[in-house]
Amino acid sequence: xxxxxxxxxxxxxxxxxxxxxxxxxxxxxxxxxxxxxxxxxxxxxxxxxxxxxxxxxxxxxxxxxxxxxxxxxxxxxxxxxxxxxxxxxxxxxxxxxxxxxxxxxxxxxxxxxxxxxxxxxxxxxxxxxxxxxxxxxxxxxxxxxxxxxxxxxxxxxxxxxxxxxxxxxxxxxxxxxxxxxxxxxxxxxxxxxxxx
Amino acid sequence: xxxxxxxxxxxxxxxxxxxxxxxxxxxxxxxxxxxxxxxxxxxxxxxxxxxxxxxxxxxxxxx
Lengths: 196, 63
Fold this sequence. Notes:
heterodimer; A: Arc Repressor Mutant, subunit A; elongated
């Protein structure tokens, strides 16, 4: 009965309970969001074990801080993702010994489009998601929040501490970079085919 | 992209901005691929259960 009640409770009730120390309420929040947090971290790190580790850290940190969460601020998922993002950046810093927070990739300015390539470059999902791994940190973050987490632009802006306009620009550049990469890949493929 | 997400076809989206049609098409194709092509990933069941147990029963630091 208690479990069924928790499953039906909305986030507000569960957060209020968890903030007062109700671990079962926190467990219900965990069940509701763990897969989303895990997927988010996985898409940023591309490693299952690291994603599990950072997901665990995210929920442990959130448990410590849940009494500070403000209902009228960002949605609970966005709040969790902000914690996850900070942990991911720190993890990368430690791993790379102080290098850039997330892998950098070549910045692509403007849209590079050729109609011929467009027909060939029918963007299949798997190939495009491979490309997401090569995006620079903020671009990858925005793409994951938008297309994996389904967050709105205002929520992404809150999580990243940027303006909505800046988020849109980052997304635009990320899509341009992915397009460029897809066209480059196909260019190599056709060059190899011709050589062979 | 909002219109695509709401189920509008790509052609219909492009009709809305004819002056940007050629520049928008490749980006909308990428967005469409991103929407539909995410590889499914999930944590292991052991991880899921272990962490839930930790979060609901153990005393955590800082509280």
